Structure formats: C-alpha cells, structure tokens
C-alpha cells in the first residue's frame, strides 16, 4: 500500500480520506468531462469513525490516506450514508481488514447493502431519522433523506462541529487537487453543480423541497457541508449560492429560454433549425442551439434544467425516429423536467413519420406542442418562413409564461 497520499483536515479531528478519479468520463449515462472524486471522511475521536468508502479500484489510495493519520485497523465504526457502489464498493474488504465494532446505515441502507453485497460477514446496525450516536467528544445525528437520490440516502450531522455530511446532495462530478469550494472559481462550481443537479437530482426535486422544509424546522446550524462528490463547502457564502440554485430548481422556476435540439442527415433539418432560432431570437429570448453531432445527452439535460421550451428536430430514417434523438429523448424523459412548451420539425424523403414520433415523446413528458413543421427534402423559402414564425410563436409562449410564473 502506498504511503505517499495524505488525509486533509476539514474540521477539528475531521479528515477527508477520499479518492480522486481524474479519468472517469461516464457515470450511469452522465458524462463527467472533468472526472470526479469519491469523498470519504474520518473522525478521530474516542470511537474512530469512517463515513463512506470509495470505488474498488481506489482502495489503495483510500487506505493510504487513512494510514497517513491512523492505522486503518484502529477504526471502530463505519457509517454508510449512501450504498451506491461508488461509495460502498470496498466496504466488504474494509470490514474484513478492519473488523470494526459496528457498521451503521439507514433502515433502507441496511437492506440495500445486504442486497448488493452478500459477503459482508457483519450485521449492519440500522439507525433511524433523528437518532444520535456518541463518538466521545463528538455526536453524530442522523437524518434520513430518502430518494436523494436513492431510497437509502442519509445525512450525518456532527453536532459539536456543525459539519453536515450530505452524501450525494450538494455535490458535483469534478476532479481537482483543491478540496474546498472557495479554492475554485464560482463559474466552475456553478457549471458542475448545475450539471449534477440536472442529470441526477432533477427527478427527485419534490424530495429536495421537502428536505429544505426538514432542515428549516430542525434548527440545524451548519458551518461546513461535506458531500460525497466534489469539493467541501467551507465558505458559506458560496454554499448559500448553491442552496439558492437548489431551491430554484426544486421549485421548477424556469428562465426565458428555449433549447433547440436536433440532428441532421444531409443538412435540411439543420437549415430549418437555423431559421427557427432566427425567429426565436427576434423575439428577444435566450436560445441554445444543440446539434447532436456536437452535444451529448448530459449537456442537453444541463440546458433543459431551466428552459421554458424545447424544440426538437430530426429527419425521418427508415420510417422511424432518428437514433440520436431516440437516445436523448429517452434520457430526458427519465429526468422528468417540467418544460411547459415545445415544437417539432424535420425533413423527410418519402414517408415522414419522424415528426409524429417526436411529438409523441414530447407529449408523453407533458410538453404542450405549439406547432410542427415538415419539409420534403430541402426546405424552400415557404418552409423557411414557417420555421421563422414557429420560432417566434414558441418565444411568445415563453415570454407569456415567464411573465406569469
């Protein structure tokens, strides 16, 4: 085991002992263009306590960081805030090596860990919402946060230090040498926390809203927020910005913005997209053009997070929807955005089923179709004018929506 990797202190007797994954570029369908971290935390108290673990291939790095401050065999307790494998995959090996007194998880976490790993060789102790655990000079208070973003999800609060360990909530996929949010530019933080919410948390927005109610009524005072991915939030000014974004997204507050998602075979659909964009911009709304030969599904999700309309276009291929659109729309449907308006467009040669299939997708996710346009082969001046007017019509719907939001 390497001895040259160090733990990083984040609070009194509280250390980051996680791993940095510089190379990962995809996590369950979500593109991670700048890698990620798998954060784990160690509390050096009378009962030395480890919060979460890491992916299997980072076991040596993880143990090396722990060993920089204590022999891993001296760990007394392990607490699993989240059972997803990127935070629990080395748990069976750690249990065998460390032989801790107890391993704690939420009620649902106990069920999940036993279903994922069949060789833990240790009884998991289930803790309930509001339950407390004494470590010596420090106290851990548990808070169930089911469906943020798994049924087992749980926060752990270090009462005396006001440190909130939030598993996947308030995190981001971003590999960096900096461990604290204030060490990174706000623009970088905002981009990655937005992408994380859009691609992972969006379907559970109603649970986020309930979490805020729970925290507000609990009276918790927080000085440090330590998620399981990305930097630790030690600067509360930055974290308040994150909270503001979470509150906006969970409340489904949208911007005066249209996303145009399309692909093209011989350029005809792209010509239509350009005229739709021109029409929308003439009405002074923000427009994001996202051709699928350059943008992938995670980037589409990021832009749809606060969009009030999505306009989707594709040629018909083999009497069917164009494959890249089928991929993106299936992904978007699962994220359950609340986009109020949309439109469809596309070119075709002899059948033209593509538009109908695009419309069916949008309707199935609750989008009101403003209009649709087909072009047989290459769009002529009449079709181009129709596209311009479609862009204007959608933009007007968006402006009216934002005015009344």
TrEMBL record:
Q: Which domain of life is it from?
A: Bacteria
Q: Which cofactor does it need?
A: FMN
List, for all copies, the residue spans of the domain called Flavodoxin-like: 258-395
Cite the GO molecular-function annotations of the record.
electron transfer activity; FMN binding; metal ion binding; oxidoreductase activity
Q: Give the InterPro entries listed for this entry.
A: Flavodoxin/NO_synth, Flavodoxin_CS, Flavoprotein-like_sf, Metallo-B-lactamas, ODP_dom, RibonucZ/Hydroxyglut_hydro, Rubredoxin-O_OxRdtase
> What SMART domains does the database record attribute to this sequence?
Lactamase_B
Pfam families, A to Z: Flavodoxin_1, ODP
Q: Which family does it belong to?
A: In the N-terminal section; belongs to the zinc metallo-hydrolase group 3 family.
Its recorded name reads: Flavodoxin/nitric oxide synthase
